[in-house]
Amino acid sequence: MTMTRCCITGRLLLPFAALMATVLQSAEPSKLPFKPSPVPGGVAVIALPAKAAAPVVTYRGEPVLTRRSGPGWVAVVGIPLSAKPGEQAIEVDGRAVTFTVKPKRYPEQRVKLANQRHVTPNAEDEARIAREQVLMAPAWKAWPETLVPSLSFRQPTPGDLTASFGLRRIFNGVPRSPHSGLDIRAPQGQAVRAPAPGRVVLTGDFFYSGNAVFIAHGEGVVSLLCHLSKISVKEGQVLQAGDLVGEVGKTGRASGPHLHWSLSLNNARVDPRLFLGGKP
Question: Which of 11, 100, 147, 231 holds its CA 20 to 30 A away from the CA of 192?
Fold first, then answer.
C-alpha cells in the first residue's frame, strides 16, 4: 500500500517493528471516505498492528480515533497547522510509532476590518477572549461515547469555497495566526445545516467567532460553525446531517457575511475540504 508507506517512516521501537512490517501489507486506508494528506493542517492515516480490540492511540497527548482495516487497524490523525515538517510520533498502547509530516506552504491573506478592536483588542476584550478560550477548550475535546463519526461531511451551506484554510492572515497590516477554518461565501440569512450527525456541545456569542455552534460528531471529531446571524439549536441537541443549525451572518471578526467552518480531529484543526463527500 503505497499511500500507507508514505505516512510511516519505518523507524519504530523494537519489537514493534517486525509486527508492523506485516500489517503494512494488509491495511486498507484507501477505503476511508477521504483522502489522507499528511501535512500541517491535514490528516495522516497510520497503519497499526492486528489485534482484537482497538489500540489506544494518542498524539500530542490527545486521544486519536481508530478504524478497522483488514486484520489490523489504522489511526486517523489530525495534524495541527503548528506542526513542523519531518518526523512526528503517535503513542500506540504506550509504544512510539513515527510518521512523517510533509511540508506545505500556505499563501498570505490581507484583510481590512472596520473594527480595529478585532485586530488589537483592548484590556476588556482580552479578558473576554481569555474567558471564552476556557469555555471553548472542552468543546474542542468533546468525545461523546455513543457517537461514531462517518468521516464524510456535507457542505454546511451552499456557496463558493474559498482557499482560506491555513492562510497566513494580516489584518489591517498586523500579522495574526493562520486561518484555521474554511470560509464559504454566502448571503446574510442563508440556512446553515449540520455537516454530519452529532451533538451540540456549545453555543454562544464569542469575540472572534461571533454567534457560534460547536457540534461533536464522535471520537474527538468536532465542527465549529460561526459568524452566524441566528442560532437555531440548543446545547445537548442531537442533530442529523442536514438539520438546521442557524443562518449565515457576519458577527464577530468578519468583514462581510459568510460561514466559517472549522473541523477538528484530536483537538487539531484540519482542512474540512479533505472530508467533503456530500452536497449542501
Answer: 147
Contact 157, 193 (CB under 8 A): yes
DSSP string, 9-75: -S---TTHHHHHHHHHHH--GGGSSS--B-STTSEEEEEE---SSPPPEEETTEE-EEEEETTEEEE
The whole-model pTM stands at: 0.83
Q: Is residue 87 within 8 Å of residue 98, measured between CB atoms? A: yes
Domains in the chain, ordered, with CATH? 2-101 (2.60.40.1590), 108-278 (2.70.70.10)
Radius of gyration over alpha carbons of the chain, in Å?
Answer: 19
251 near 210, Cβ under 8 Å?
yes
Q: Rounded to an integer, what distance in angstroms lies between the CA atom of residue 24 and that of residue 17?
A: 11
Q: Is the pLDDT of residue 128 over 80?
A: yes
Digit-coded pLDDT (tens) for 116-126: 665 667 899 89
Q: Give 170's contacts (C-beta < 8 A, 6+ positions apart).
A: 108, 109, 110, 111, 176
22-70 pLDDT, tens digit per residue, is 333 333 444 788 989 999 999 999 999 888 889 999 999 999 999 998 8
Are 188 and 248 contacting, i.e. CB atoms less than 8 angstroms apart?
yes
